[in-house]
Amino acid sequence: RIDALKRLAAALKTREKESGEERAAPHQLMPLKDGIEPISVLEDRFAPAGERYKLILTVLDSERFCIHAEVYASPDLLSWRLFLPEIPDWHCEPVGGAFYNPKRDCYTILHRRTWGDRGVGYQDTRDFIHYTPYETCMHQDALDEALDEIYGMSAFEYAGLFVGFPLVYTDNAPSRRTKFDPGNIYPQLAFSPDGHHFQRSLRRSFLPEYRGQPSLNWLSCALNAPDGGMYLYCAHSPEPHGVAFRTHQNGGTPRYTH
Fold first, then answer.
1. Residue partners of 232: CB distance under 8 A and separation at least 6
2. What DSSP line would sit under 19-63, residue for residue?
């Protein structure tokens, strides 16, 4: 493995010299862009070997004042190329999810369509080029606190159902200009029989507070554990929404086991 990593680093350095692209680290797989965040990496069962893996990446579009999602393809998880410059109907937050849906034999993409939309929806695709029209699958209701919104949602198949993790943005009392700075984000629990229609359960965080702190606890990845349980991976910041994005070196990556 060490030899393979050394070869990868050497190849990336060579590619950097040939392309003129600057890299922040020798193991960096692609050039950085403004506001870049990975959403999901999938093994595409419908694609040829050269496009076996798909990476959904969100990028800040400062000209249009939105965040759009790009799709990259790779044969080996090391060499990536741009596959689709923009997923239609995705112009909002870098919080979403993607999973294979055996009930419909396709991939289901979950995301919030635009800023100000207080719910999340889904789109299906089989080739990561053509997508079904955006359909809302969950939104705020009378059981939520005033001004709460569902910031995004990830999901995966588990025990014959689809388990969803809607991120609820709460305590976001607006200031004179915007409600960007205050507020906490925490994951609730939802389930679906078909990967499209989700129902929420208890209206509270189903994960304990990390280090006894609220604020941002984004559940970004869930995996089936060998013993039949789940591994849940989060990104955490003790700072409130908005402030956390401007404050560095105080975050954490908690892992929960169920």
1. 207, 219, 221, 222, 255, 256, 257, 258
2. H----SSTT--S---TT-EEEEEEE-TTS-GGG-EEEEEEEEETT
- 54-77 burial, b at 16+ Cβ within 10 Å, e below that, comes to bbbbbbbeeeeeebbbbbbbbeee
Report helix, strand or coil for 244: helix
CA–CA separation, 138 and 142 (whole Å): 13
Dig out the tokens for 248 from the structure: 């560095």
Q: Who contacts 68 (Cβ-Cβ below 8 Å, separation ≥6)?
A: 58, 59, 61, 86, 87, 90, 91
pTM: 0.83
3-state class of 150 per DSSP?
Answer: strand
pLDDT digits (tens, 9 = 90+) for 145-192: 888 889 889 998 888 899 999 988 887 665 545 556 678 888 899 999
Is residue 45 a contact partner of residue 70, using CB atoms and an 8 Å limit? no
Strands 66-74 and 81-84 turn out to be antiparallel
Q: CB–CB of 169/149 below 8 Å?
A: yes
> Per residue in 68-120, pLDDT tens?
999 999 999 888 999 999 999 998 877 889 999 999 999 999 999 887 788 89
* SS3 of residue 229 by DSSP: coil
